[in-house]
Amino acid sequence: MFNFHYRLERNAIGLTVAIIIAGGIGGLVEIAPLFTIDETVEDAPDMRVYTPLEIAGRNIYIREGCYACHSQMIRTLRDEVERYGPYSLAVESKYDHPMLWGSKRTGPDIARIGGKYSNEWQVAHLYNPRDLVPESKMPAYRWLLRNSLKIDDLGEHLAALRKVGVPYTDEMIANATADAYGQANPDSGQAAGVTERYGDKTNVSLFDGRGETLTEMDAIVAYLQILGRLTDAAKQSAQAKVE
């Protein structure tokens, strides 16, 4: 076997053919499943897109490297399902660009953290994790509460996401800045527009506990509170299996 390998390396044409064959096999393995993607990705009629504020929070989550310590994919293993909730479905990441499944858990998986804790808990945890979890190794993100959130370019973010398949409408893109402000200020005139465009179940709240000013803390808490709640497909699938 080793002698064959050595002879192949000395034969330019043979080595080229072998590389093409190996590459072809690898490409086939990766490409073939795409022909059946409509059968493998679950249907979720209730699936909604991220709001502009949630997109801003997701961008901050990526910027701060949170994905390096927290995965967003619950495997089908029994211990994971019992700890974190129903295992993740492909459709739940339908509008994620890029995917944030992760590969390491210094902290727990957060695929279903949305609604598990209050906004106040999330703010306190991000401000100083050890106030709530003494053994936590997570760094404090106090500046999120001080930093004003940039929202004037969120329409461009939504337009870019539409180019890769996320179904944002012209109205959503045009009102992105107003919707970001309205979602974090329930008493403002812009709040009603958020639920009109993204649905009645959209979480409109004082995420950082303060009105008027819009902070990066508002955005990341809004994002964390929607994780696992863009669709009820996983919950329905789990209930169907029990029944």
From TrEMBL:
<keyword id="KW-0479">Metal-binding</keyword>
<keyword id="KW-0472">Membrane</keyword>
<dbReference type="Pfam" id="PF02433">
    <property type="entry name" value="FixO"/>
</dbReference>
<protein>
    <submittedName>
        <fullName>Cytochrome-c oxidase, cbb3-type subunit II</fullName>
    </submittedName>
</protein>
<feature type="transmembrane region" description="Helical">
    <location>
        <begin position="12"/>
        <end position="35"/>
    </location>
</feature>
<keyword id="KW-0408">Iron</keyword>
<dbReference type="InterPro" id="IPR003468">
    <property type="entry name" value="Cyt_c_oxidase_monohaem-su/FixO"/>
</dbReference>
<feature type="domain" description="Cytochrome c">
    <location>
        <begin position="52"/>
        <end position="228"/>
    </location>
</feature>
<keyword id="KW-0812">Transmembrane</keyword>
<dbReference type="InterPro" id="IPR009056">
    <property type="entry name" value="Cyt_c-like_dom"/>
</dbReference>
<keyword id="KW-0349">Heme</keyword>
<keyword id="KW-1133">Transmembrane helix</keyword>
<dbReference type="InterPro" id="IPR036909">
    <property type="entry name" value="Cyt_c-like_dom_sf"/>
</dbReference>
